[in-house]
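Why do we bother with a discrete structure alphabet at all? Because it lets us treat a fold like text: something you can write down, compare, and reason about line by line. To make this less abstract, here is a complete entry for Formate dehydrogenase subunit gamma. Read it the way you would read a sentence in a foreign language you are learning: slowly, and without expecting to understand everything at once.
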Amino acid sequence: MNSPGTSVAERVRALVAAHRGDRGALLPILHRIQAEFGYVDSEVVPVLAAELNISRADVHGVITFYTDFRSEPAGRTVLKLCRAEACQSVGAERLVAHAEQVLGIKVGQTTGDGSVTLEQVFCLGNCALGPAGQLNERVQGRLTPGRLDALLTEAVNR
């Protein structure tokens, strides 16, 4: 997580300073940390707690409650599969099972080589085109196992 010339703690303190007067500053700070470093490392928890004058348990609780926050780096490719009702009704669960089998991981995990992280979401706003997924930042609709395999192969081989 270290950036050249700046310690993680210094960078986190700078992010806190940018939100010091904001009500509910923890969430925007955590989002900025994740955007900058790719995940929220456990080493930032005591720094945030001290800087925001809240308990480590409070910080940890927020990080673990919201599924948007990662506590370890994601793979080079992030696949999010929708499991909301509209997508479930057109085969999302079969698609998730297929992805887990093909990748050899469960939802919430990253492949051993760090190439793909598989995540679940509960709506991508693409309900009419379910089952839907998001590969990196691009939303995909009408996913089938074959189409998902092709998209993953293309993304991983870039």
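What the structure line is telling us, in plain words: The domain at 77-156 is CATH 3.40.30.10 (Glutaredoxin). The radius of gyration is 18 Å.
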